[in-house]
Amino acid sequence: MRTTLSQFLIEQQRKEGVIPPELRLLIEIVARACKVIAHNVNKGAISGTLGSLGTENVQGEVQKKLDVIANEILIQTNEWGGHLAALASEEMEAIHPIPNRYPKGEYLLVYDPIDGSSNIDVNGCVGTIFSVLKAPADSTGREMQEKDFLQAGSRQVAAGYTIYGPQTLLILTVGTGVYVFALDRELGSWIMVEEKLTIPEDTNEFSINMSNQRHWHAPVAKYIDECLAGREGPRGRDFNMRWCASMVADVHRILTRGGIFMYPADRREKVKSGKLRLMYEANPMAFIIEQAGGVATDGTNRILEIAPVGLHQRTGVVLGSRNEVERVRDLHRELV
Ligand code: AHG
Ligand code: MN
Ligand code: MN
Ligand code: MN
């Protein structure tokens, strides 16, 4: 019999002693919420979940119906569970403390309810990204505040993402490697399909939105020029390119077969600190990538060491196969 998510989590608790029961149950609830989100994503036009709402989120992005539906599903499934002190999301400006009618726990959940929203209406890949932190010790007994969430990514106790693609997969780390579970719809269970994923150190594949080329800073421009020069260029080999416009889909490909993913900060005012959000996109993905033996930086610095100053703060992201991410880091050191 194959291992289910529940069995895996119980084993992690028993054998490795890495997760307390409260964290195990919290992850189970997040995974259950993702099943409900998967159902809504799959129904699409049949249940009227496609299209935009016309409202804007705190980052000034037009919200899709599914952004808001998935955000609500994650709140409703998690707030009664008893293991959280508060939660926060891309789609909410302020943190969401657990209401007084529910028991409170000692964890904080931060998430991107639907990543790759622009893919929703074209039946492309989307996902959900989440990160779990411990509430600071000095927060016990008082109302949670945004500052309680502002912990470096290295403090995450669990992180994961789901990908609603041809298969619905859950990718999870609790700091003991990266595990992949597939949703078996007949059983209603998450079934382990891969364990201890590792990312190859070398790759011939990069992932970047090339339409932003004219805005890039010199190190990124040089790196991509070198890749494009192919066999005749300084890298001495040909590179391929992929861009799904969904971080989960691009990162998942890299976890599966290697590659480098880049959404760098660039010259545009809006993107001067990057586009992707540190707390609920870059940090959980960086934790997963490092657990698989890859490297995750903002171009220069390790993402997991960035000290956050705001819940929705952005960062440049360069992650994936070690030798390529290090090449980009070297170019930043040489050219800045
Ligand atoms: P979200 O849909 O959660 O706002 O995130 C979208 C992000 C990320 O998934 C993707 O890599 C990137 O935005 C795509 O941006 P471009 O449309 O600029 O390529
Ligand atoms: Mn968005
Ligand atoms: Mn996103
Ligand atoms: Mn999103």
TrEMBL record:
Subunit structure: Homotetramer.
Organism: Limoniibacter endophyticus
Name of the encoding gene: fbp
Transmembrane regions: none
Residues that bind substrate: 115-118, 209, 275
Catalytic activity: beta-D-fructose 1,6-bisphosphate + H2O = beta-D-fructose 6-phosphate + phosphate
GO cellular component labels: cytosol
Pathway in which this enzyme or protein is active: Carbohydrate biosynthesis
EC number: 3.1.3.11
Binding site for Mg(2+) 2: 112, 115, 281
Gene Ontology process terms (BP): fructose 1,6-bisphosphate metabolic process; fructose 6-phosphate metabolic process; fructose metabolic process; gluconeogenesis; sucrose biosynthetic process
Cofactor binding note from Swiss-Prot or TrEMBL: Binds 2 magnesium ions per subunit.
Fructose-1-6-bisphosphatase class 1 C-terminal domain residues: 199-332
Name of this protein: Fructose-1,6-bisphosphatase class 1
